[in-house]
């Protein structure tokens, strides 16, 4: 599922990630646009219009200068963005607006963990983008996630989250582990079990006060994300209790917590940010967008101390990704659809990748220099363009369900309780099931 890519606090911070090997520097960007929109004053007598885009976290459009560029190409159109930092706040508001038929932006960001619910229950409130977006341009499974049974497309794909592993080479070296990315990849080639074995080896010689991983719940999400069947089956039935991927992820998380391999920090929290600055955790599972969080929060003092290698095992995984939808209630539906088409085209997705590291879902971007030859100087010039493109091509098509996000968040909370409170695995699982069943009915 997509994780809100913002640190706690008032400011939204991102990093310039992908480069052609020339430069990469961190940017500090703060502030979100006002909750007040100009929907009721979206056009004037001169034919000039304002299109509003509502989204969450960091979609990267302002950071990549795309709204300004669109205005240059279309002088009669001004694009204004209304960003909510936390998707968990954004989504209930979106549902309220859809239910009332008012307050919606011309373009709405849609999180992958919610897309199935929207496809099943709210598709008639979105414009059909099937004639606007060519599904064949995207990785094979992306547009299927936003498509109804009768072929209506309610969202155009933005980013995806192909998986890798970020690791602190300085801590690895102090613990007597290899630091070369190919050697590290070989050590975890057998899968997440190999990853935990490497963690036990790290713990034996690790510097005092350091941990092998930041969060067992993050590892859990990475494990589950590598499987096609996660929380629901093909018939829309919730099967999380019997899901092999959930069970594997849960057992590995319980093992990591029990063996004290994890620092037990909720990702993106203030303690997590501080741990990155202080270099107290050796590995972080890394969907494409995670590198930006690490580089910004670890800071300039830790540049060159991190590297990126392929994720454990041979099975590709995706964690995260979003869509852009066009509500039918908008005053400029045709213009909004054209904006969505442009924002999700290869060149624009490559620009966003260069600006904040969100990996494109449009395959055409993979051959553009800003993606194909992209490296990360902060991470020892890791060839992220190649790493993520190779991963993206083999990610399995996931079976989505309407309450994927709620199930994942509830299980993650209970894993955190195992780490932080010492809750026994059986008790934590029972609590998770009890909470989930209240949500899904």
Give an overview of the whole structure:
This protein is an alpha/beta fold and 441 residues long. 39% of the residues lie in helices and 14% in strands. The chain contains 16 helices and eleven strands. Strands 3, 4, 5, 6, 7, 8, 9, 10 and 11 form a nine-stranded mixed β-sheet that branches. The longest helix is centred in the C-terminal third of the chain and has 17 residues. The chain is globular. The relative contact order is 0.19.
Overall 3D form: globular
The proportion of residues forming helix, as a percent range, comes to 25-40%
* Helix count, DSSP H or I runs of 4 or more residues: 16
Class based on secondary structure composition and strand pairing: alpha/beta
Distance between the termini: 21 Å
- Poorly predicted runs are 1-40
Order of helices and strands: EEEHEHEHEHHHEHHHEHEEHHEHHHH
Rounded to an integer in angstroms, the radius of gyration calculated over CA atoms is 21 Å
| Number of DSSP-assigned strands | 11
Average pLDDT, rounded to a whole number, is: 90
The profile of the biggest β sheet is: 9 strands, mixed
Strand content: 5-15%
């Amino acid at each position: 599922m997509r994780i809100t890519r913002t640190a706690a606090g008032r400011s939204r911070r991102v990093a310039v990630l992908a480069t052609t090997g020339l430069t990469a520097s961190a940017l500090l960007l703060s502030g979100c646009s006002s909750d007040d929109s100009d929907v009721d004053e979206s056009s004037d007598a001169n034919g000039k219009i304002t299109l509003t885009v509502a989204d969450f976290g960091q979609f990267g459009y302002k950071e990549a200068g795309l709204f300004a560029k669109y205005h240059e190409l279309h002088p009669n159109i001004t694009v204004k963005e209304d960003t909510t930092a936390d998707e968990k706040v954004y989504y209930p508001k979106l549902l309220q607006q859809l239910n009332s038929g008012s307050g919606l932006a011309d373009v709405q960001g849609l999180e992958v963990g919610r897309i199935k619910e929207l496809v099943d229950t709210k598709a008639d409130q979105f414009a059909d983008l099937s004639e606007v977006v060519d599904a064949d341009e995207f990785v094979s499974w992306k547009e299927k996630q936003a498509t109804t049974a009768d072929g209506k497309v309610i969202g155009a794909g933005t980013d995806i989250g192909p998986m890798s592993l970020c690791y602190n080479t300085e801590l690895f070296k102090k613990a007597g582990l290899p630091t070369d990315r190919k050697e590290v990849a070989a050590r975890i080639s057998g899968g997440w079990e190999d990853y935990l074995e490497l963690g036990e080896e790290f713990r034996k010689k690790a510097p005092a006060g350091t941990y092998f991983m930041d969060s067992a719940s993050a590892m859990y999400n990475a494990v589950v994300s590598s499987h096609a069947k996660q929380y629901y089956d093909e018939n829309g039935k919730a099967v999380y209790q019997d899901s092999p991927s959930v069970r594997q992820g849960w057992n590995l998380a319980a093992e990591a917590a029990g063996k004290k391999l994890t620092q037990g920090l909720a990702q993106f929290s203030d303690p997590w940010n501080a741990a990155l600055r202080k270099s107290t955790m050796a590995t972080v599972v890394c969907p494409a967008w995670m590198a930006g969080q690490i580089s910004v929060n670890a800071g300039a003092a830790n540049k060159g101390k991190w590297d990126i290698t392929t994720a454990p095992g041979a099975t590709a995984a995706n964690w995260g990704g979003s869509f852009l939808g066009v509500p039918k209630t908008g005053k400029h539906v045709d213009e909004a659809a054209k904006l969505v088409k442009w924002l999700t085209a290869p060149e624009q997705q490559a620009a966003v990748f260069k600006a904040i590291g969100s990996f494109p879902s449009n395959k055409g971007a993979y051959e553009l220099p800003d993606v194909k030859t992209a490296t990360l100087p902060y991470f020892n010039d890791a060839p992220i363009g190649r790493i993520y493109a190779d991963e993206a091509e083999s990610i399995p098509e996931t079976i989505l369900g309407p309450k994927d996000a709620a199930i994942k968040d509830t299980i993650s909370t209970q894993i955190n309780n195992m780490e932080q409170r010492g809750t026994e695995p059986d008790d934590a699982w029972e609590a998770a099931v009890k909470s989930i069943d209240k949500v899904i009915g």
